[in-house]
Amino acid sequence: MEDLDTAVLRTAQSWQAAGQPAVLVTVTRTWGSSPRPPGSLMAINGRGETVGSVSGGCIEDDLIERIRKGGVPAACAGLLPVVERYGITADQARRFGLPCGGTVELVLEPLSARSRVDEVLEACRQRRSIARVLNLRTGEVELRPGRRGGVPQLDGERLLTWFGPQARIIVIGAGDLSRFLCEIALGLGFEVIVCDPRVEYHAGWSLPGVTVSREMPDDLILRLAPDARTAVVALTHDPKLDDLALIDALQSEAFYVGAIGSRRNSALRRERLGAHFGLSESALQFLRSPAGLYIGSKTPAEIALSIMAEVVAAKNGIELPPQVRVGAAKSHDEDARPEASGCAS
Fold first, then answer.
1. Percentage of the chain exceeding pLDDT 90
2. Radius of gyration of the chain (CA)
3. Which partner from 22, 96, 126, 239 sits 20 to 30 angstroms from 106, CA to CA?
4. CATH of 168-321, one of 3.40.50.300, 3.40.50.720, 3.40.190.10, 1.20.120.530
C-alpha cells in the first residue's frame, strides 16, 4: 500500500497521462487549529475528482466547485501557481468549518510536464530524498537532493517541499503477531517486508501488499541496507534469527530497531550482542527491547498495536519518556505492588 503523498502524486500523474487537467494543492502554512498539517497534499482534476485532503472537507468543496464552474484556469489564473488563504476572517472560518478561527495557506499548482511529477515518483521509488522547488512566477520546477520530512518553505517567488521514500518496516518472523503488525503497518501507509527462512512458517501465510522473503535475516538486512525511513522489528523469539537481523540493523540508518522478549531475555540479548558481536553501548541503547509501549497488551493484536505505536512515534521524531515503554512500565508496576514494598496486602 502506498502512503498518501505517493498516492496523490501517482493519481495526478495518471490524470496527466490521460490528458485530464489537474491541480496539485499543498498546505504551506497554518495558523491556529487546522485539520491538516503543512505539507499535506491534494490533487483535483478538471472533473472535480480528488485524492488526498487539505482540510476537514469544506475547503475541498470550495476548490472543487470553483474548478467545476470554470475548470483549472478558474482556480489558477493564467495556469500559473497561486497562493490562497482560507479562514482569515471569522466569516470564512464559519463558512469553511475551520476550528477555533484557524487559517490555512495553500499553493494551487496546475500540473504539466514542467511539474516533473514523474521524476519525483521515480526518486521515491528508488528511495532517494529530494527537494522540489516550484517557481511561483513561471511554474518551473527544480529538483535537488534533500530530505523528507521538512516543513514547506514559501517566500514570494518559490515553494520548497520535500519528498522521499515511503516509510518501510522489515519484520523478522512470519507468526501470528507478525500478521497483526503487518496489517496495522499497511493501514498506516508503510511498505512491509516479512523475512522468515523457516519453511514451515510460510504455509498459509500470505497478506496482500506484503513482500515475504525466505532469506536469512542478516542477508536481507545487508541487501536492503535500511535507511532513515526504515524500521526493523524482530519477532521470532529465536536468537539465531533475531540476533542476525539486529546485529546489522543496529549498524544501519534505521530509525527504529526493536525486538520482542521478556526483560530478562532482552538484557541477555544486549549482553550477548555486546560481548560476542562487539556492538557498541550506543548501538545497544538504541535497541527497543522489549519493543512497544505499555498498554497492558495481552493478545497478539494488542502487542502489535503497542509496537506500531512506538514505531510511529519514532518515525515522527517523538522522544517518549522511558516510563511509557514496556520494560520500564512493568518494572514500575512490580515495584509498586504491596508485597514488593513489604506492605500487607
1. 64
2. 24
3. 126
4. 3.40.50.720
